[in-house]
Design a protein that fits this description.
By secondary structure, this protein is α/β, with parallel strands linked by helices. It is built from 7 helices and 8 strands. Strand 5 and strand 6 form a beta hairpin. The protein is globular and about 50 Å long. The two termini are 30 Å apart. The relative contact order is 0.17.
Length: 212
């Protein structure tokens, strides 16, 4: 079974570590960025000595997995996602999250969406037939307000959401019938709950070949 993890930050790096330890041998991690000091509190694979190094290089060294230093976009995304059994969205930009949502539906590969900010986070398994991220958020958040650098994020919140996302990946790989609900975690209240999500009738996730 093969898994692609997009993003090696506060979500992607713990997901990669968990899946590697769980025995998922065929892992690929992509990230275009370098390690930065202000992110070390939540990016558990990196240390002070790694500052300035490419995240992809450090992840390859620490976990012995395939990595690529690249940014996923509409031009390269379909080719990148094709052939994987599951894709993990570990990015911190909603523009990229919606792109991955659409690409995964077009290619037909299950996507585990994960997002975290401040004390809270969410996980959603996206598959054709829905629901998908556009069913949860029909209007994407404004780009100026969706970055971790703007909202901030508690390290344990990222770790908790990453663990939930990794568990969903293992369920997908085990052919369990996952999907149809959003997992929400709130470390400010200590609450973890699941909320049913119905696909929107006009959403691309309901269309047979993933195109509205």
């Amino acid at each position: 079974m093969s898994v692609l993890i997009v993003g090696a930050g506060g979500l992607g790096s713990p997901v990669a570590a968990i899946l590697k330890t769980a025995g998922v041998a065929d892992l690929t991690v992509v990230d275009p960025d370098a390690v930065e000091l202000e992110n070390l509190h939540r990016q558990i694979l990196f240390h002070d000595a790694d500052i300035g190094r490419a995240k992809a290089d450090v992840v390859a060294q620490r976990l012995a997995v395939t990595t690529r230093r690249m940014r996923v976009d509409a031009a390269n995304g379909r080719e990148l996602l094709a052939g994987f059994d599951c894709v993990v969205d570990g990015t911190d930009s909603f523009a990229t999250k919606f792109l991955l949502n659409d690409l995964a539906l077009d290619v037909g590969v299950p996507l585990v969406h994960a997002a975290a900010a401040a004390f809270r986070g969410q996980v959603l398994v996206v598959r054709r037939g829905g629901p998908c991220l556009r069913c949860l958020l029909p209007i994407p958040p404004d780009a100026a307000t969706d970055e971790c650098s703007t909202t901030g994020i508690l390290g344990p919140a990222a770790g908790t959401v990453a663990a939930l996302a990794a568990a969903q990946v293992l369920r997908v790989l085990g052919d369990e019938p996952v999907g149809g609900a959003v997992l929400f975690a709130d470390l400010a209240t200590g609450r973890l709950h699941e909320s049913r999500l119905d696909p929107r009738p006009d959403c691309r996730c309901r269309v047979r070949h993933g195109r509205a």
